[in-house]
Amino acid sequence: MSSATVFETALLVSQVQRQALADDGFTLVRLGGLVLGGVLVAGGVGGLHRWYARTRVPDGLSVLAGISVVAIGLSTQEVLTNTTSRGGEVEPNAVLLNVGTFLVATVATLLAGRAGDRVAQSVFDDAPDARDIVRAVGRQITVTLPETIDDMPDYDPVAPETRTRLEGASFGFPRRLTVDELRSRLVERLTTDYEVGHVDVDLADDGTVEYLALGSRAAGIGPTLPPGQAAVAVRADPASTASPGDLVQVWDPPERVVTGELRGVAGDVATLAVDDADAAALDGETSYRLVTLPSQARVDREFAALFRAADETLAVVGVTDDGTLAGRTVGSLPVAVVAVRAADGSVETLPDDSRALAPGETLFVVARPDVLRKLDAGEGSVAATPSDD
């Protein structure tokens, strides 16, 4: 083979390689453009949903909208063409490239939807004048929070920065809502967007906030422990499938030490909830063996979990001689009475609605904080117990 032929062959190979690199670069740029388009659409959906519905956009909705852009760009015919060679064989590189594009677009559109929601939230929640104009044409109503927000009794206060953001803030809601519906939407907005644990609010018929107090949920394991129990961290080897809530036996072979409830696992350290009397039997230096017991119905645990997630809380109300409860019946109260302790110390659970109340009795009631506050104003002896306890 002559030197001229070799040179021409090398030149041809070089041109083919440059063309392949150019095609690959164009493909990457085109796919990047599709992902960017999906991100913009997902962010726009997040902002539009916040502007119209005044709630956070569902992640699935923003991802679906963004992925649709990528799917349209990568049409079915084009995808099949790029992933199949002329002989009908599948090209793995093209398949991986398309699958990778969808994966990247999914993550990017998820983050874009949340970012669009955050941007729209900051714009609309910090622009009360614009919302007042919209309200004037009848599309929505505006609820303005007081300049001073109170703390809820018996609850931890909210973070100072959260209180500063909320004092004097305005929120827009759709019109044609009843007072109760508007109150529920406002409470949902505060608990969801600002991570407020408890809200006590009174609204007038025109949507004006007459009273507002906030409280945060107690953090940690302490509020979830029932009376007479303590949390203890021990070195142990729980089963790989064991999870918080399982009933376990603690063994220091060959003896069983205590029986408790598994609350958490971090490496070789397990946190257990045991009776106060059994806590001293556990040694922090000893490595124990945990035996998971068969699952059984735990009505108390289910009730506690539901109660912690509810808006209602538990309170103890004393019936006094000069109060408004003496002589009234259980069914006439705006609260749910779960038990009545008589003056002689006897306890009646789930009393009948026709049962009359007498001075010196104590009621255990469940109601929203605002209802308990009004009951407190009339009776003057309400001791609230946060639902986290």
Automatic annotation (TrEMBL):
RCK C-terminal domain ranges (all copies): 302-381
Protein name stated in the entry: RCK C-terminal domain-containing protein
Matching Pfam families: DUF8167, DUF8167_2nd, DUF8167_3rd
Record field: transmembrane: 28-48, 60-80, 92-112
Top-rank lineage group of the source organism: Archaea
Origin species: Halomarina oriensis
Biological process, per Gene Ontology: potassium ion transport
Keyword set, alphabetical order: Membrane, Transmembrane, Transmembrane helix
Sample GO molecular function, one term: monoatomic cation transmembrane transporter activity
InterPro entries in UniProt: DUF8167_2nd, DUF8167_3rd, DUF8167_N, RCK_C, RCK_C_sf
